Amino acid sequence: MALLDDAVTLALVVSAAFFVVLAFGLLLRYRQVSEKINTSSDLGHDLWSALEQRMKKQDERILDMYGRLEVVQSRVLAATAPHEPPVIPPTPLLAPAPAPEEEKPKPVTEPSPIMQQPEPVTESQASQVVKPELQLDETQLAAVRLLADSPKNTRQITDALKKSREHTARVMKELFEWGLVRRNDTTKPFVYQLTDQGRRYLPSA
What we know:
Helices cover 58% and strands 5% of the residues. The chain has 205 residues and is mostly helical. It folds into 2 domains: 1-78; 134-199, Arc Repressor Mutant, subunit A.
């Protein structure tokens, strides 16, 4: 009987030792897996931060390129704006009359009148031309009201209108071409200011 009790006790001790070793092994494995997960999380965070910075730089480059494109377009329009003088067709030459047998005085032909070229229109005369009333949409009217107090740059207008950069740039380009706003090309981003023509579209007090 005593021998049986010793065998049972020994079996319990061996089982307890086995479970202790197993628990220790699982704990060690858990620590290793936890360290790997933390390392992977830090690496993923660093990769995401680098990607976000790269995207911000790309957005700045796109905005800068779009601004340069607007400057080039405005210069091309300014270069092609002046009216070219009309081309005067050459006066057809008169065929000489056949010489008569008897000498007769040749009729004197009056010179053909020279076509007068239209005088170029000066800037002061162009400013006096009455432009037709424009039909502005809601976004264009909102941009006009936004510039009523003070000039604002492209980023401020984009944030206030809550539109994309491309949409805002297209709206401001149309207002600039219609003479409702002035644009300062020497700053980045561009600064827009309302003109007297644009103030006509403000709501009356």
